[in-house]
Amino acid sequence: MAAKDDLLQAAETGDTEAASAALDTGALPDVGDRYGVTALLRAAGRGDQAMVDLLLARGAQVDKGSAQDNTPLMLAAARGHREVVARLLRAGANPAHRNKWHFTARDWAQWSAGSSDVVAMLDAAHGR
C-alpha cells in the first residue's frame, strides 16, 4: 500500500502512529482520494482532535476542500464536533468559505441536531 493510502486509512481509523509513519515515508498531508477527500477532512468529520492536531502540525492546509469544496470545518460543524471546530478556527479556518452549493460551515452546523453551540461559535468567528 502506498504512503498516500496508508495516511488516508490511518485518518479513517484514528491511528495517529500510522499517520505519522505514512507522513515520514513520503505521504503528503494534503493528498486526497479520488473525491478529493484528504486525511484532514476524514479526521475532522470523525471528530478526531488528535489526528487533526497531528495533520495540522505536519502541514495540512486547514481550508483544503474536497472536489465539492467542502472543508474540514464544514464536516466538523455538520457533525457537531465542537472541539475540532474550535481547533480548526484557531488554525485559521475560514468560516465564510462556501462549497459548490454555496453552503458555509454555519449552514452545515444548523442541520446537525444539538449544534447550537457550534453555530454560535461560527457566528462569533465570522463576526455576526
From TrEMBL:
Transmembrane segments: none annotated. The keyword Lyase does not apply. One of its GO terms (molecular function) is ubiquitin-protein transferase activity. SMART domains: ANK (SM00248). SUPFAM superfamilies: Ankyrin repeat. InterPro entries: Ankyrin_rpt, Ankyrin_rpt-contain_sf. ANK repeats lie at residues 35-67, 68-100. Coiled coil: none annotated. GO terms for biological process: protein K6-linked ubiquitination. Keywords: ANK repeat, Repeat. This is Ankyrin repeat domain-containing protein. It comes from Rhodovibrio salinarum.
